[in-house]
Write a structure and sequence with these properties.
It contains twelve helices and 21 strands. With 469 residues, the chain is of the alpha+beta class. The protein folds into three domains: 35 residues; 121 residues, Glutaredoxin, CATH 3.40.30; 246 residues, Class I glutamine amidotransferase (GATase) domain (Rossmann fold, 3-Layer(aba) Sandwich). The strands form five sheets. An eight-stranded mixed beta sheet has the order 8-7-9-10-20-19-16-14, sandwiched between helices. The longest helix has 34 residues.
């Protein structure tokens, strides 16, 4: 009897100990879970996993950052929960980030400071702030919809959050001016929409009426319709002599700009007349002027090449090889050696196909390059030149082509912006299988007729066998 009592007492003690251990372990994991991410990411496209640029940014963070979430705690749903989980993960991965949820209904005065400087604030805003500056991220901007505007196709939360983090912690603010006053195709507002989320400041500048600000780092000349005045060119030249950079995105055909082209020629930059058409079917998309260029290995393109990415370069002029011995040219994009430089743009097409005619050139051509000139003992001036602007049209920047990666890398190279990164959005769309009409008939016959008939026959055979047992 005593042995039985001792056994029961021992068993009870062991049970209590096991329960106590389980409780302690749960408490420890609960506390640890607020500091460390303990979840496995099983989502499509690793939605809750960070890319290497974000991980590197968090590991190298030296400045304390306050991150305020205005998402109501009562807000629920898969998308809201995923976005909330992504921003919480930043705080779990860096001790430099102080994350706090703010109830704006109980604390309405909290947002006044941010709203007073023109920042749009709503209940789905995330605010990143240091003692120097702040950045408001609207979670609605993190959602990419399909053409109908009904279904979310991708989430770019990591891109927006990491860009905001870099913006508020970056000691160097890079300002880019967009030249106006020449009938430009793309305004400063267009480039602002592209570059602001990447941490750049963008403003328009009229070189005829204004001097270039001392704190400006780069200027964009975007598809002008009329030539530049010598006064404007002198300002650009003086700007470059200070070690700054210039982007020249020329119209693919048509207008001549004698003064601007003469200045670019001093850098060894010259354009071929006409437009470029590819004849290699592996290097154009749908039409021969929608070029899929070959990328030349460089600091701009190496990541894209290694990642097996592809660019689409619609409607472009060719750039002549640079022979100026006082500059260094880094070619970024070329055609194949089967491409046609179509100088006779009025020639008739043969059954819709572009072929080489009289005066046309069949050769490998440059489509984009960066030309660098030494302008001081430690200063370099750079000009990025492209035969067109269509490669940064909005539809392409939001497509699966790597056009935005390429452009962001180019600007980072021009401005020596080591902090700039580009993170691709995460695809959450439902996978679609394209089925031909014939395959549809076959699949329908299999699922509607063959499988049910096979089950019926199998059932009948089993019934007949059992009946004769």
């Amino acid at each position: 009897m005593n042995k039985k009592r001792n056994y029961m007492a021992t068993a009870g003690a062991v049970t209590c100990l096991i329960i106590a251990v389980i409780i302690v372990v749960n408490i420890l994991f609960g506390v640890l879970g607020t500091k460390v991410n303990l979840k496995l990411d099983m989502t499509k496209d690793k939605l809750l996993s960070f890319s290497e640029p974000t991980i590197e940014t968090l590991n190298n963070l030296q400045t304390d950052v306050n991150v305020y979430s205005l998402i109501p705690e009562a807000a629920d749903g898969d998308l809201v929960n995923q976005l909330r989980e992504i921003v919480e993960k930043y705080a779990k991965m860096s001790s430099k980030i102080n994350y706090k949820v703010v109830d704006t209904e109980k604390n309405p005065e909290f947002v006044q400071k941010y709203a007073s400087v023109g920042e749009g604030i709503n209940q789905y805003s995330i605010i990143f702030e240091t003692d120097k500056r702040f950045k408001v991220v609207d979670l609605n901007d993190a959602l990419g919809f399909d053409s109908s505007g009904q279904s979310v196709q991708y989430i770019s939360a990591e891109k927006l959050f990491t860009s905001a983090l870099l913006y508020v912690t970056n000691e160097k603010t890079i300002k880019i001016g967009v030249a106006e006053g020449h009938g430009e195709m793309a305004s400063a507002a267009y480039f602002e929409a592209i570059l602001t989320d990447e941490g750049y400041e963008v403003e328009s500048i009229n070189l005829m009426t204004s001097d270039i600000p001392e704190d400006m780092n780069s200027i964009i000349i975007s598809t002008p319709e009329k030539d530049y005045d010598p006064v404007e060119i002198d300002k650009i030249d003086a700007f470059l002599d200070k070690g700054n950079s210039l982007q020249v995105l020329m119209p693919p055909t048509g207008t001549a700009f004698p003064k601007l082209e003469s200045y670019l020629a001093e850098w060894g930059i010259e354009f071929q007349p006409g437009y470029v058409a590819e004849t290699d079917k592996n290097h154009y998309y749908q039409t021969q002027v929608y070029l899929i260029p070959e990328m030349v290995n460089s600091d701009v393109t190496s990541g894209l090449i290694n990642g097996g990415m592809m660019l689409l370069f619609p409607g472009s002029r060719a750039i002549k090889p640079n022979t100026n011995q006082y500059v260094t040219e880094q070619v970024l994009l070329t055609t194949t050696d089967k491409a046609i430089v179509k100088t006779n743009i009025n020639a008739e097409l043969t059954e819709g196909e572009i072929t080489a005619g009289e005066g046309d050139l069949v050769e490998k051509s440059n489509l984009a390059s960066i030309v660098t000139k030494q302008v001081g003992d430690e200063l370099e001036a750079k000009i990025f030149v492209s035969g067109g602007i269509n490669f940064i049209q909005q539809t392409l920047l939001e497509s699966n082509f790597a056009n935005k990666d390429f452009y962001m890398n180019t600007i980072a190279s021009l401005t020596d912006n080591d902090a700039n990164i580009f993170i691709r959005a995460k695809d959450i769309s439902t996978p679609m299988i394209t089925v031909t009409a014939l395959m549809g008939i076959i699949y329908g016959a299999v699922t509607v007729i063959i499988i049910p008939l096979a089950l019926l026959i199998a059932g009948l055979v089993i019934w007949l066998r059992r009946r004769h047992l």
